[in-house]
Design brief:
heterodimer; A: Rossmann fold; Dehydroquinate synthase-like, alpha domain; 2 domains; three-stranded mixed sheet; 14 helices; 9 strands; B: alpha+beta; Nonspecific Lipid-transfer Protein, Chain A; 47% helix; globular
Chain lengths: 394, 204
């Protein structure tokens, strides 16, 4: 399937593998940067992950300009503006973000503020409006394998006052360098491994089935799902398996490239709203809502889901499933993966398990209708449709 | 080295810009008209923060159309206004806008295909798109609507009445303007019924 028009960009340089972090000083030198600000959170410092980065920088002769470790689980406009102010005050010349989606998106938000010279992120809300010859040099080191934020042109920042998550979309937001080092994810607890893994899977499935799916984004989505199918069970079985961790990090990155270009749909619209309204962790919402979103879309995206069965379940299952049954089988496979992560790692399977109540659903549905991801869903949804899906997922 | 040739946009592109200017004007007035005539549009508009200014344009510069929601009144400001836009939807070229403006493609498609930029709150842009779907349901015949609208067009009044309403440039929705979506939505719930008659506050 080729859309009548599409755009595709994947400009991040990817460093993947053993000791990848030790290449950061070289990359900074290439970008003529000498004083990076490190963006992270306190939990990652306590876990000792930042020490790996700091040692690499010290060994490479890089002087750190500042360490900003105040990024909360759900970043906000205030945090972004604060980070930008610290960057300016400390005379930094690059951003080195070490963390999960919230940390990386906070860094992207600050990059918008810094590059545009704005004092306030709210002034830069929108889609493809960032005009700049060059952004602040930006290296992303993900510590989870899910968001793919290290290669995406999207940032999600919470608006605390309005209880919504604001989307910023621009190819200018893609980091210059994405660093995948297994040392960053081997200590990830099983529960978080499962949640972020389902997030990566959701990115790939939605990217493959949404309105802007194209041959290039398809290739990345297929590769991502193959890796999730093979390696998510392995990392849940043995979190210290470095090669499996690296494979999952690559899966998240591949899914990130895919959805950064072909975008995501109703599952993300609902998930963002669950996060904004009820503080549901993004990966949890994705895992819970993905099969329900696929069921809603199946009449419009059935052939695409049927294709995905090959990657979700493997060639033997695909070959032995009649063509007419493949789409339904793909949804059942996703459901089975969610159940597997539930049994292995305690991944929630219903919205009620993450604290969402029936009374909150109308508010979530309304917010989902205002989420930009709805634009790309293969099937147009009305608020009543979204409410039905949410009720089914409760 | 070849000599520098001065090539203009050509008659076809100029014509498309002219048509786009006309359709933009109709869309701006159509949105105002539908805010008077159709409860669904009225409900959407009343979730917009007071002082909202929305502009549709083609980059660079023109044509464009602007509407403003302020003090309980939705007003079509046309193409010549210096009101600062809260939400600026800008098609990247006339070729990106034209199919959507003449009813060949859904208004969602340019957004999905990176053919338009949005400066401002994306939630407001989503609300605008829902309004435009309803407005197109009135402006275009069903044979076109079946191709461009995601769902079959529903009309609360007939085409003719909608076209007559295009003559107006403002709609007083008869309630205090909203500061936030939830309060606005509840305001609609209590006042929308009388508005659905299509007469109250019609200042055109």
């Amino acid at each position: 399937m080729i859309p009548s028009y599409y755009e595709f960009s994947n400009r991040a340089k990817v460093l993947s593998g053993e000791a990848a972090i030790d290449h950061i000083p070289f990359e900074l030198k290439v970008m003529e940067c000498a004083r990076p600000i490190i963006v992270t959170n306190k939990q990652l410092i306590e876990l000792g992950l930042l020490k790996v980065v700091l040692r690499a920088l010290a060994e490479g002769g890089v002087q750190v300009g500042a360490i900003y470790d105040d990024v909360p689980v759900d970043s906000s406009v205030a945090v972004v503006n604060d980070l930008a102010a610290v960057y300016r005050d400390q005379g930094c010349d690059a951003i080195l973000a070490v963390g999960g989606g919230s940390v990386l998106d906070t860094a992207k938000g600050a990059n918008i503020v810094l590059t545009t010279g704005s004092e306030d992120l709210n002034e830069q809300m929108g889609n493809e409006i960032i005009v700049a010859r060059a952004m602040v040099p930006f290296i992303a080191v993900p510590t989870t394998a899910g968001t793919g934020s290290e290669v995406t042109g999207a940032a999600v920042i919470k608006d605390i006052e309005r209880h919504t998550k604001m989307g910023f979309v621009s190819y200018a937001l893609v980091p210059d360098v994405a660093v995948l080092d297994p040392r960053m994810t081997v200590g990830l607890p099983p529960r978080l491994t499962a949640s972020t893994g389902m997030d990566a899977l959701t990115h790939a499935v939605e990217a493959f089935s949404c309105r802007q799916a194209n041959p290039l984004s398809d290739a990345y989505a297929r590769a991502a799902i193959d890796l999730v199918r093979e390696y998510l069970p392995l990392v849940l079985e043995d979190g210290r398996n470095a090669s499996a961790r690296l494979a999952m990090a690559n899966a998240a990155l591949l899914a990130g490239v895919s959805f950064s270009n072909s975008m995501v749909g109703i599952v993300h619209a609902m998930g963002h709203s669950c996060g904004g309204q009820c503080s549901v962790a993004h990966g949890d919402a994705m895992g819970i809502l993905l099969p329900h979103g696929m069921e809603f879309n199946v009449d419009h995206a059935g052939p695409r889901y049927a294709e995905l069965l090959l990657h979700l379940a493997g060639p033997e299952v695909y070959a032995s499933t009649p063509a007419a049954d493949r789409a339904a089988a793909a949804i059942e496979t996703v459901r089975a993966m969610l159940q597997f992560t539930h049994e292995r790692a305690g991944m929630p399977t219903k919205l009620s398990e993450v604290g969402v109540t029936l009374e909150q659903l109308p508010g979530i549905a309304t917010a989902a209708m205002n989420d930009g991801s709805m634009t790309f869903n293969p099937r147009y949804a009305e608020e009543s449709d979204v409410l039905q899906i949410l009720k089914a997922a409760l | 080295m070849a000599s520098l040739m001065q090539v203009g946009p050509g008659p076809a592109k100029r014509a498309k810009r002219l048509v786009a200017g006309v359709v933009f004007g109709v869309l701006g007035r159509g949105t105002v008209a539908c805010a008077r005539l159709d409860e669904r549009v009225r409900t959407e508009v009343m979730t917009w923060p007071d002082g909202t200014v929305i502009t549709l344009s083609i980059s660079p510069g023109s044509p464009r159309t602007t509407i403003r929601w302020e003090g309980g009144r939705l007003k079509a400001l046309g193409s010549k206004t210096d009101a600062e836009s809260t939400l600026l939807v800008s098609f990247k070229s006339v070729e990106d806008a034209f199919p959507a403006l003449i009813g060949m493609k859904s208004v969602l498609q340019p957004f999905a295909e990176h053919r338009a930029t949005v400066k401002g709150d994306l939630a407001l842009a989503m609300s605008l798109v829902r309004c435009l779907h309803i407005v197109e349901g009135y402006l275009f015949p069903d044979i076109m609507n079946r191709r461009i609208l995601p769902l079959p067009a529903k009309r609360e009044v007939g085409h003719l009445r909608a076209y007559v309403a295009l003559l107006g440039t403002s709609a007083d929705l008869g309630v205090p303007s909203a500061a936030s979506a939830p309060s606005a939505a509840s305001a609609v719930a209590s006042s929308g019924t009388s508005e659905a008659s299509g007469t109250k506050g019609d200042t055109a």
